[in-house]
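testing teh design pipeline on a random one, pls ignore if ur not involved
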């Protein structure tokens, strides 16, 4: 009976797709079938299990892509939902910059699925959101990393630990080169007073990974604080060129 009432209500007051805005009558979905298919296709794009960068056929060798070979990154593995492709780009920009807070649970669900399917899932003890400086919160309707970390914690049952803080501000990373991004966040993160990470295995959560400078700096702070292993989970990864610079300057 409740189902019939829901269907009747949606015929009069239809649901609207969170991507294209089109109306449809299904109370159990957030996306129309067309947009769901487009996003699903982007989510299936192969990624490196170490850095989460997009990879081609047969590019992964011994669990890493050619960009990761010969390196000893502080982040052991990275899970992502999708590359920063056409439709996910629209979603993430609407969420971050246009106050579309209703997109948070949807992206949080996908990010939780990415974490749950990661080969290192069973090793995790806590989730840590990439923190921001208080000045960066001014004028923003939400702080994406913190909200997404909460969604992932709720859906996976992994404890969310507020052990990391940003101790120095600086300009936003948008539009900066790889070198400038690294310099901008160098020394910007530290453990909160009294936090103890003796041997902990943690996953850092952020919305977007570009060059990875912010995630790396956060991971360094966690490792200095005693964490044994640090992983990362992001909604999207932005492509970058052979020199390591992002090919998209607006995020």
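output:
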């Amino acid at each position: 009976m409740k189902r019939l009432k829901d269907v009747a209500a949606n015929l009069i007051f239809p649901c609207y797709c969170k991507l294209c805005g089109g109306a449809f009558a299904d109370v159990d979905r957030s996306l129309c079938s067309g947009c769901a298919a487009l996003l699903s296709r982007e989510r299936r794009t192969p990624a490196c299990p170490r850095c989460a960068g997009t990879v081609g056929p047969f590019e992964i060798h011994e669990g890493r892509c050619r960009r990761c070979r010969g390196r000893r990154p502080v982040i052991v593995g990275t899970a992502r939902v999708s590359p920063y492709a056409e439709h996910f780009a629209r979603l993430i920009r609407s969420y971050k910059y246009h106050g579309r807070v209703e997109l948070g649970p949807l992206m949080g669900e996908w990010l939780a699925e990415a974490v749950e399917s990661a080969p290192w899932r069973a090793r995790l003890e806590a989730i840590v959101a990439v923190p921001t400086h208080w000045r960066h919160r001014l004028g923003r309707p939400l702080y994406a990393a913190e909200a997404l970390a909460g969604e992932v914690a709720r859906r996976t049952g992994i404890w969310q630990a507020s052990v990391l803080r940003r101790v120095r501000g600086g300009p936003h990373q948008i539009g900066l080169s790889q070198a400038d991004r690294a310099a901008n966040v160098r020394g910007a993160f530290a453990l909160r007073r009294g936090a103890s990470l003796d041997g902990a295995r943690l996953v850092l959560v952020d919305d977007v990974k570009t060059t990875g400078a912010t995630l790396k700096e956060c991971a360094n702070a966690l490792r200095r604080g005693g964490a044994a292993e640090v992983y990362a989970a992001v909604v999207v990864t932005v492509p970058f060129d052979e020199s390591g610079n992002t090919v998209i300057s607006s995020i």
